[in-house]
Amino acid sequence: MQIIREARPTDMADIMKVMDAAKGIMRQSGNMHQWGEGYPSKAVITADIEKNGGFVIEDGGRIVGYFASLSSPEPTYARIYEGKWLDDDLPYHVVHRIASYPEVHGIFNSIMDFCFSMDSNIRIDTHRDNTIMQHNIEKHGFTYCGIIYLANGDERLAYQKLKDKPVFHQKTFQELTVDELYELLRVRSEVFVVEQNCVYQDMDGDDQMSIHLWLTVAGKVVALARVCPAGTHMQDISIGRVITTERGKGYGRQMLLHAIEAAKEHFGAKQIDIEAQEYAKAFYESVGFKQSSETFMLDGIPHIRMTLNIEE
Predict the structure, then answer these.
(1) Cβ contacts of residue 82 below 8 Å, gap of 6+?
(2) How far apart are CA 57 and CA 133, in angstroms?
(3) Taking residues 246-264, what's their average pLDDT?
């Protein structure tokens, strides 16, 4: 059983052995440049411990891992390039110097469980060649945010995870990763085809021209929508495929407000149309849409057209 506790100065020899083992894993996996020139040194580990931010992982009384968990601000995170943090206002903890023996499994999960028990906002970075750490970070639901630079100028890939706060994502079709596209289509099929027992052509050829938006909580999609330019799904700019998978938490309204802003930003919308299921009329009216057609049947479900006129 793995136990995490604060590191002590008397642990230093065992910690440095773990560091040497971690460097060996890096080199064997092709990561030849991270943690060079004696880093992390005893002085660095001592500084972690003095800040009450150094922790060891014990298994059967033996130290098998080490990491640092330090409260914000992290100076090297003050500037981020080619992206942005999910949230740049809330306090956070940063996780550094994760190390363990190669035969010990589950270390990363144990560390993340421990860190998120103390803070719901975690940032972490890693070397571009550290594919093992990148896999662990992304598997645990972190979002890639951009590039930061260490004090010595070295580049690092930066990630952030907000455990309970919805994270907003917005991409063109061409920007979507395969995994992102698969998940959006999976959720759309789950709700519109399976849950509503409706056979229809979800992949209609409009996705390629659309802006795709979604909210995630702990890496799980909880709401999504797409914004279509004029002349694609409808004659005018339109919002569609609006889904909330966890109802009663306000995610749907957040999603719709984001979609309206995206329509204005990307397509200069002055008017936005939507084909709304009739039962959801009040939901769309709550953000300013008004009914603009009689009830009609679409894929066997009563719909109405609703229109939002955007004030100058």
Answers:
(1) 146, 147
(2) 17
(3) 91
Residues 6+ apart with CB under 8 A from 231: none
Q: What is the mean pLDDT of the chain?
A: 93
Is the pLDDT score of 230 beyond 60?
yes
Would you say 257 and 272 are in contact if contact means Cβ atoms under 8 Å apart?
A: no
User: Do residues 158 and 148 lie in contact, with contact meaning Cβ atoms separated by under 8 Å?
Assistant: yes
Query: Does residue 312 register a pLDDT over 60?
Result: no
Distance between the two ends of the chain, CA-based, in angstroms? Answer: 62
In the DSSP assignment, the letter for residue 30 is T
Residue tagged 């996780």 (tokens): 95
Q: Helices (DSSP H) in 39-128: which residue ranges? A: 42-50, 107-118
Write down the pLDDT at residue 53: 97
* Nearest CA among 218, 222, 203, 115 for reference residue 162: 218
- Single out the residue of 157, 166, 300 nearest to residue 222, CA to CA: 166
Instruction: Place 156 in a pLDDT band, splitting at 50, 70 and 90.
Output: very high
